[in-house]
Amino acid sequence: MSSSKLNLSDNRCIYEVLNIEQHNQLVGLTEQLVKYLSIKYGTPVKEYPLVKLQPLHKGELSLQLSVPWFKTCNAEAIFPKAEWVSGNMKIIMGISCEATIFISFIDESALSHQHLDRLFKPTNQPKPTIEW
Fold first, then answer.
1. CB < 8 Å & 24+ apart, contacts of 58-65
2. Whole-angstrom Cα distance, residue 64 to residue 13?
3. Predicted TM-score of the model (pTM)
């Protein structure tokens, strides 16, 4: 997959799939993972349309991928397939723009501002003393 900016704002990209066969294999693997993760975590609370693409027609070099995506903090994109909730944990699975499958486990309560403020609160550490 590659992204084409085409003078779009930072949060809007057009993703082009260059290798249709690899994309379709990855989509097939995500479908299998949905079944597996559903056994472990129950029915997904949200599913996203991540579908197989038709082969390229003569003269076409790529196909545009028109599916929901999320921008990650390192400026890559992920294309989610399904999402589960287990306790405080959110599990999201899909395909990255680097053509790999990802599974993310996010504990939103542990990442809340209140919890992080407590973790990163400055501590009063004793000053070391030196004796000669």
1. 61/18, 62/2, 62/16, 62/17, 62/18, 63/16, 63/17, 63/20, 64/14, 64/15, 64/16, 64/17, 65/1, 65/15, 65/16, 65/17, 65/23
2. 10
3. 0.67
